[in-house]
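new request in #modeling-help
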Amino acid sequence: MQAKQQSEMHPSRWGDPDRAQALPDTARGMVELVFGLDDRPALVDPALTPSALEPAVLAELAAVVGPDHVRTDDETRRLRTRGKSTPDLLRMRSGDLTDAPDAVVRPGSHDEVAAVLALAGERHLAVVPFGGGTSVTGGLVARREGFAGVLSLDLVRMKRLVAVDHTSMTATLEPGLRGPEAEALLAAEGLTLGHYPQSWEYASIGGFAATRSSGQSSAGYGRFDALVVGLTVATPRGRLELGSAPANAAGPDLRQLILGSEGAFGVITDVTVRVRALPEVKVYEGWRWPSFAEGAAAMRTLAQSGLLPTVIRLSDEAETAINLADPGAIGGEGASGCLMITGFEGTPTAVAAERAAVTAVLADLGGDSVGEAAGEKWSHGRFDAPYLRDSMLDVGVLVETLETATFWSNVDRLYADVKSALTASLGDPSIVLCHISHVYETGCSLYFTVAAKEADEPLAQWHRAKVAASDAMIAAGATITHHHAVGTDHKPWLAQEIGPVGVSVLRAVKADLDPMGILNPGVLIP
Amino acid sequence: MQAKQQSEMHPSRWGDPDRAQALPDTARGMVELVFGLDDRPALVDPALTPSALEPAVLAELAAVVGPDHVRTDDETRRLRTRGKSTPDLLRMRSGDLTDAPDAVVRPGSHDEVAAVLALAGERHLAVVPFGGGTSVTGGLVARREGFAGVLSLDLVRMKRLVAVDHTSMTATLEPGLRGPEAEALLAAEGLTLGHYPQSWEYASIGGFAATRSSGQSSAGYGRFDALVVGLTVATPRGRLELGSAPANAAGPDLRQLILGSEGAFGVITDVTVRVRALPEVKVYEGWRWPSFAEGAAAMRTLAQSGLLPTVIRLSDEAETAINLADPGAIGGEGASGCLMITGFEGTPTAVAAERAAVTAVLADLGGDSVGEAAGEKWSHGRFDAPYLRDSMLDVGVLVETLETATFWSNVDRLYADVKSALTASLGDPSIVLCHISHVYETGCSLYFTVAAKEADEPLAQWHRAKVAASDAMIAAGATITHHHAVGTDHKPWLAQEIGPVGVSVLRAVKADLDPMGILNPGVLIP
């Protein structure tokens, strides 16, 4: 399966325009009942202000990357404007293109990236590295003040599988490869990365690394930062190459300083990742739990027994009832409880053994298997939620997600506090759903989906709810983000999470690697 | 089992003086044959120069930590002088105490550590954090130049189990707890850390964290840096608290910047670690392989199949023949090949299942089980090698270890190159032994033990060999250290490994957190 080029995405919607759809009939009735339908006018492509860049500067850029790879046309600039958070979509739908880059520059190699950075330093241009454009935290909105212009550094030309080491089971990938492209290249070698975030069809290898992405199969394959054994980075200070061994004691692990650096310390120009053999078998199954708490406890037992399957997710009562609304899938019309999805990938022998062990534990703890149909349904629709969000926005329903993580002993409190904060802020009519999708021995993530009737000022409406939820996370001692990264949106809470000394360290590293501050200014660093 | 206080260690030997011994008869004949015996004169406690600190400064320190906890007597200072590398022991044996601290200060809390750092900044004193004193890379040798004196910041009073979270399976430990002390406190809660480096009987929790330690059970429990979920650090810039979740995407993972910081960025005042249930069963087994390469390939297969046991180690032909010389243990007098140790820890059910799976793989690949006796023998003597080194030094045989790691496809080259470099440098008579003791999906460590007839200038003799081996590691693209850390000894090669941009980042972080440069000056940062 090969997704279309990012350049074919619509600027104010998610993904492939051919897959855009009106609200499905199955959902339309419920949405009308809860929120009412408020069809929004058809969207037009909003106009841009002209590029601020002088022709001489554009010529200098063209001398580095070639004239075909410096673009200032409206369509290209529009498609590199912001990311795909709901506020991003709302701004775009309202015609606000103030954050558009002045030019889109497409380097073809590490050396071209380095040369663009050097030129940007000389000409006082801000540089926003661009991979899949799927940020949901404002990671693509560079501060313009103090700069002569903003470049979108589009890594679309850097899509090679640079090296494969079948003995070490590693592969070196360029940053512009999107999820399906990387998997296709690896599949030809009999390998898989196994990294499937919801944004997988569009997000890029460089973005996975820069944002500490975590995929739906994280229990089996690990978070993206756990897959990375090496990195090459172009910084204004020079080239940084890391990854002399799987692990070492040669000082702090600087790989973990680049992972999560969100383009603010440098541009990742290749990533060496641990790979696995392509699974021969993939099987997904549904389980019903009487309550969210009991399902979560079962997840904890699996994690602490070393028995995690490849995929494990658990929806709360509300998400089970609404988002996975197919009563037949979890035990018949009117069945209550919470749906868990388990997935197993690997050789037939390994899958059979792991599935048997997991089944024994879950059944013993009070779970009821509802069979593979529920698992297949989840698997089939696993990348589709952002399309549904667009359909909801089309009828005046604001939909957004946010997520956090904490240690097991704090999960109940965090769940209750964030849910309360969102519900109180959004008022009626609104819906707050939650699932657990990333599980560790010591804790797990919580992922919230919110729907509310769009107010007159939806940006302010959502901002208030986001602030309330984020404050609740930090007050509970949890993280502001498990896998969505910091961007511009999470900066105030990052500052609280890591404290003034942590912020000081980030600033010191930024000042050292990017002394002129040209890289993604305003992103990440509080 | 409770090891003695560090203060009872002999300054120029390893560990408990009561366990010091003459070269065992079993080894004496072979040592005489290979190297000759050259008994060294009995050691005397060398004299120190007086403390450089003014009484007024000592009084200020005493006002912070209490008068009992500022020590300037010779014995206390001698016991905080350098670590336990062979060069450290040779210097001490020769009476060189030039690196002795001027005072040993023992804070009792995070706030006292912070107050000592503030005072040290005012009085221009270098501060060397001291846990177990087991560094083998010069990690306790602070640069004196530019300072009014050197303090050893002994964390011996900070030995609390601060918190246990049985739900999240985490525990918060103070840095002065040594391995056995931490395990005893956790065992009372039914828990284990499972971290057993060779230095375990003396090394401390703070040291494990500061040096990215890796234990003999790393395959089952993980490296120490993989166990850490939270840290509190006292820096001259202020208090740094990290660890809001098992994992997150809230910017770079700053925990991984403190892990491996070797006291140069701050003093770790507590560590929150993932713990496991105390294993009900521990079983160790020996396997014989026709060659080191075949044994290593079997380790790789296990790692890449997700079937690693709790412990897995493999000695090369030379180490099997010499160090584990008990022909009966691996198949009778004159049996050749390589000895592998596998170990399984956990519940009876889990151990039985894992052992069966591992046994099937190893037997299929051509390994021969030699039973549990060889495993028990390894387990029994697993912390004793440093005592044997002292006995060898007593008869004029220089013994030292060094280690590295790389990806699987590079193991053969790295092994050959480092072995050649050591052999060529040390000449005859010398012995070079190697084992693999830490295994990952993508690679493994190589741990070398060297013995050579002591030359007239043994420090220079060893320095030449160390340089040759280290150059070979870097030339092979491997790491300068998998688990011994950087200290002062590895700095030139760290600079090559992470390059000038990596060095620049370390310096920037150092300058930010420790602007006066008082923390372990000369250690870690090239």
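bot summary: Residues 117 and 236 of chain A are 6 Å apart (CA to CA).
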